[in-house]
Automatic annotation (TrEMBL):
Subcellular location: Cell membrane
Name by which UniProt lists this protein: MDR family MFS transporter
NCBIfam families recorded: efflux_EmrB (TIGR00711)
InterPro entries xref list: EmrB-like (IPR004638), MFS (IPR011701), MFS_dom (IPR020846), MFS_trans_sf (IPR036259)
Record region (Disordered): 507-530
Major site of localization recorded for this protein: membrane
UniProt signal peptide: none
Transmembrane segments annotated in the record for this chain: 20-43, 86-105, 111-132, 144-162, 174-195, 207-226, 238-255, 276-298, 310-328, 340-357, 369-389, 401-425, 477-496
Keywords, in A-Z order: Cell membrane, Membrane, Transmembrane, Transmembrane helix, Transport
Keyword Transcription regulation: no
Boundaries of every Major facilitator superfamily (MFS) profile domain copy: 21-500
Compositionally biased tracts (Basic and acidic residues): 521-530
Organism: Streptomyces kaempferi
């Protein structure tokens, strides 16, 4: 405890060092979020040089699988052996994977190196959240929510633009090499100015639990990635993956009840707020990434927007999300109250999705922009509050697994959102095309319900109009489903128990009183350890 107190004194005496650390953390977060969006833009060029079109999807899938599977393991390693070491290791692995990906000579190498990169990326987001949890008391942490939301918005807007520019002027390999200077800056800054107490736990790593969790998560991600695209939902391969995933996760839960130092301590789910925040995070990921996928598609196919500026098309949603997140952070910091934000955010998110489901071929860009802003306002109330409340609901020794679990649930939510909303969209588009354009319509969408701009421009006027109507019908179904799912977040938010945020500026209460209010054991408080 003395080491922790000394770290706090150093933090208070060196606010500039804290700001440098926070800047390094923001760079690391940017690396993790920007990578897939930059690489996605470079994919056509990569395939043109390396070949292997049939394996193209694995360039993204390998990265996603490795990131999702390693996320909870990084959180546990940080709790056991120290946050700083685990975070710096994840940066190094990410940079090694980036460098190797840039040097890849064939598609097989690129897929393998992307998996290495994904292993590092799994620790980047968890490390950022957990270190901020160590440095900043929950009551003060709201100030930094706007920064996190800003990085997310910047990545989504700038990713396609930066990726296209780098590929056009420097070549696709620089889509990976660009990570190196940024990552090195973050690594040096963290190494020089981040001072956290060192940890060493005698308990052994739960290798069996880690293996079962990795198999379970990988199976889930593969089901949501392949289902309805590579394989039919009822195919033997998908059924096998579902069986393997369920068996692995059931085995994982059993192992966690017996392990001396479990990868994911099940006792944290006894806390009502933590469980509810995990559910809200899952639903937010489900909705957000579905919206990011279908909104540009609708605006390009139906409203005739340019694909080059696809990131800018999301600006109303992302801008509203950024502003609301900043306001929510400031209000939370000044008042210590937060329950209103999940409730209001869930309502706005559901309303925004319902409004988006009403878009048709006659909807103007101004109208769709206003609808997107409503959705953005809702997500801005939820994006960082979920992490803040989840971290406030556990003991300091579980900060890493709390951060990684919340991140994992949001990641899994995004996988399910893209898969389920995508399946509904594709099915609806194909049905409408068959109705409106007959055999020609069926042939046009038999491979994919998403046509690129070049293919769309070549269609006869009647077929193009039919496709535009089909896309608007598909987005209607997808967003309507999202609106219904978002109501689940509202139900969860209603049952959130507003527990005073611990740490600087929070009302002085005993550890026992805090624990009783929080449904948590009366262990060390954040104010004592930070």
């Amino acid at each position: 405890m003395a080491d922790n107190t000394e770290a706090v004194v150093q933090t208070e005496k060196q606010p500039r060092s804290v700001r440098v650390v926070l800047l390094a953390l923001m760079i690391a977060m940017l690396l993790a979020m920007l990578d897939n969006m930059i690489v996605g833009t470079a994919m056509p060029t990569i395939v043109g040089e390396l070949g292997g079109l049939e394996h193209l999807s694995w360039v993204v899938t390998a990265y996603t699988l490795a990131t999702a599977a390693s996320t909870p393991i990084w959180g546990k390693l940080g709790d056991m052996y120290g946050r700083k070491g685990a975070f710096m290791t994840s940066i190094v692995i990410f940079l090694v994977g980036s460098a190797l990906s840039g040097m890849a000579q064939d598609m097989g190498q690129l897929i393998g190196f992307r998996a290495i990169q994904g292993l590092g990326a799994g620790g980047l987001m968890v490390g950022v959240m957990a270190i901020i949890g160590d440095l900043i008391p929950p009551r003060e942490r709201g100030k930094y929510q706007g920064m996190m939301a800003g990085i997310m918005a910047l990545a989504m807007i700038a990713g396609p633009l930066v990726g296209g520019s780098i590929t056009d002027h420097w070549g696709w390999r620089w889509s990976f090499y660009i990570n190196l200077p940024l990552g090195i800056v973050a690594l040096l800054a963290v190494s020089a100015v981040l001072h956290l107490p060192k940890k060493r736990v005698d308990a052994k790593i739960d290798y069996l639990g880690a293996g079962l969790l990795t198999v379970g998560i990988s199976s889930i991600v593969l089901v949501t990635t392949w289902g309805g695209s590579e394989y039919a939902w009822g195919s033997a391969r998908i059924m096998e993956l579902i069986g393997i995933g369920v068996a692995a996760l059931v085995g994982f839960v059993f192992v966690q009840t017996k392990a001396a130092s479990p990868i994911l301590p099940l006792h944290i789910f006894r806390n009502r707020n933590f469980t509810l925040m995990s559910l809200i995070g899952f639903i937010t990921g489900f909705v957000m990434f579905g919206a990011v996928l279908f909104l540009p598609l609708y605006q390009q196919s139906v409203q005739g927007a340019s694909a080059t500026n696809s990131g800018l098309l999301l600006l109303p949603m992302l801008g509203a999300m950024l502003v609301t997140s900043m306001v929510a952070g400031r209000v939370t910091t000044s008042s210590g109250r937060y329950k209103a934000f999940p409730v209001v955010g869930s309502v706005l998110m559901s309303v925004g999705l319902f409004l988006l489901s009403q878009m048709d071929t006659a909807t103007s860009r101004l109208t769709s922009g206003l609808y997107m802003a409503v959705l953005g306002l809702g997500m801005g109330c939820l994006m960082q509050i979920t992490m803040l409340v989840a971290q406030n609901s556990v003991e300091m020794k579980d900060m890493g697994v709390a951060s990684s679990s919340t991140t994992l649930f949001r990641t899994l939510g995004s996988s399910f959102g893209v898969a389920i909303m995508g399946a509904l969209f594709n099915h609806r588009v194909q049905d409408v095309m068959a109705e409106r354009a007959g055999a020609l319509g069926s042939k046009m969408t038999e491979q994919s319900a998403q046509l690129d701009a070049a293919s769309l421009a070549k269609l006869p006027a009647a077929a193009r109009e039919a496709y535009q109507f089909a896309v608007s019908s598909g987005t209607h179904s997808a967003f309507l489903l999202g609106s219904v799912v978002a109501l689940g977040a509202l139900v969860a938010a209603v049952f959130v128990k507003e527990v005073p945020l611990r740490g600087a500026g929070a009302p002085a209460k005993s550890a026992e009183a805090d624990a009783t209010a929080n449904d948590a054991p009366p262990k060390e408080t954040l104010a004592e350890t930070v």
